[in-house]
Design goal:
Layout lengths: L8 E5 L3 H13 L3 E6 L2 H8 L4 E4 L3 H8 L4 E4 L6 H11 L2 E4 L4 H10 L6 E3 L8 H10 L4 E13 L14 H9 L2 E5 L2 E5 L6 E5 L2 E7 L7 H4 L4 E10 L3 H11 L6 H11 L6 E13 L2 E11 L2 E3 L2 E3 L1 H18 L7 E2 L7 H6 L5 H4 L4 E6 L2
Helix pairs in contact: 1-11, 4-5
Length: 373
């Protein structure tokens, strides 16, 4: 019988927007002992104000001390810190969760998990993360799966400018998605496709969007469904016109080869916003009972106030996903050691979890089947 959450010490690495949101959600339930670690004293002061412990990460020794003796680590540091932190967690038998969209980091963490005494569970955010839970749920509804398409966007509610976009999360992660190869299944075989290709347009609830290939959003789904799906892909949702400008910047001006400069440009020229919306759309088609049918899931999720703290949509959804993964391990609803894929979480378990309910409580979401013509 799993022990109660009140016995569990949790370290959150990173006190930025998402790390702070994790601390708010976990602190609100009052059943976890939380320490937030960061190298920024001002960010730690904001975390301390909500009543959690704090640790200043001055060096690698301080990082290891912050990990040692914890039940679990929730890593909200930049993606290039994922493997070093996961290595520490595996060494000390500490459960590890992160948000990385970086495919190589995930592969390295999976290798670490082969002999791990603890859980190593990367990609616990929105995409990869929740969208993999949704996609796997849709895929399992078919006797024969033909196509699985997943689309997610973290968008400004009030878009301005030619890009019609605002920064709502990690700039480094965003650039990785725009530049790195994208995993997919084509003609039944796992493969890679180019980022920014596959441009399509569609409308949801009367709003026009475009979507195009970006890296990392599928997580481990292509491996899970290799040989069982004819086609599978992931695309980021943006307002129309965004992709064309990205191709100018990345391809024509060759800024994909100067990512540090591109990061500086984005952060100097694109405002951040707290007024955002998460758009999720996934669809699957295949055979069920001898008929060709299609099922879909769509949601638009906005921010919410938790306790006295206003969390925007990307904070709420990302933090809710990783906290739900932690909670499900604590409750014994997921394996207790080794590598865990997002698709091992049942959609019903996720949406029924006290953290995962944020996706249901702050959205109008539906899944419906449509017979093909």
């Amino acid at each position: 019988m799993p022990s109660t959450p009140s016995t569990h010490r949790i370290a959150i690495l990173g006190a930025g927007h998402i790390g702070f949101a994790m601390a708010v959600l976990l602190q609100e339930v009052g059943e976890y002992r939380i320490t937030v670690a960061d190298r920024d004293p001002e960010a730690l002061a904001r975390a301390a104000a909500i009543g959690v412990g704090t640790v200043l990460l001055q060096d690698d020794g301080a990082l290891e001390a912050a990990v040692t003796g914890q039940f679990a680590v929730l890593n909200a540091l930049p993606f290039h810190r994922a493997v070093p932190v996961a290595t520490l967690c595996a060494r000390h038998g500490v459960h590890y969760f992160d948000l990385t969209e970086d495919v190589r980091s995930t592969q390295a963490i999976r290798a670490l998990a082969q002999d791990a005494r603890s859980v190593l569970m990367p990609q616990c955010g929105l995409a990869p993360g929740f969208i993999g839970v949704v996609g796997n749920d849709l895929a399992q509804r078919f006797d024969t799966l033909h196509d699985l398409r997943m689309r997610v966007g973290a968008l400004p509610r009030y878009p301005l400018g030619a890009l019609r976009y605002n920064l709502t999360w990690s700039t480094e992660g965003l650039i990785n998605e725009y530049c790195n190869p994208c995993e997919a299944i084509v003609d039944g075989q796992p493969t890679t496709v180019a980022a920014l290709d596959g441009l399509e347009t569609f409308a949801l609830d009367g709003v026009e969007y475009e979507a195009f290939n970006t890296s990392g959003g599928l997580g481990t789904l292509p491996e899970t469904w290799a040989g069982r799906a004819r086609r599978m892909d992931y695309q980021s949702i943006r307002y129309p016109g965004h992709c064309a400008i990205l191709k100018l910047l990345l391809n024509d001006l060759r800024l994909r080869d100067r990512r540090d400069l591109l990061k500086d440009i984005f952060e100097a020229a694109i405002p951040a916003t707290e007024q955002d919306v998460i758009v999720v759309f996934a669809s699957a088609s295949g055979l069920r009972g001898g008929r060709l049918v299609q099922d879909a899931y769509s949601a638009r999720i906005v921010g919410a106030t938790v306790g006295r703290h206003a969390l925007n949509a990307i904070q709420l959804t990302t933090a809710a996903s990783i906290c739900a993964a932690l909670d499900l391990v604590v409750q014994g609803r997921l394996p207790q050691s080794g590598f865990i894929r997002q698709e091992q979480i049942a959609l019903g378990d996720f949406l029924g979890n006290r953290f995962g309910r944020a996706y249901r409580d702050h959205a109008l979401a539906q899944a419906e089947g449509v017979a093909a013509a």
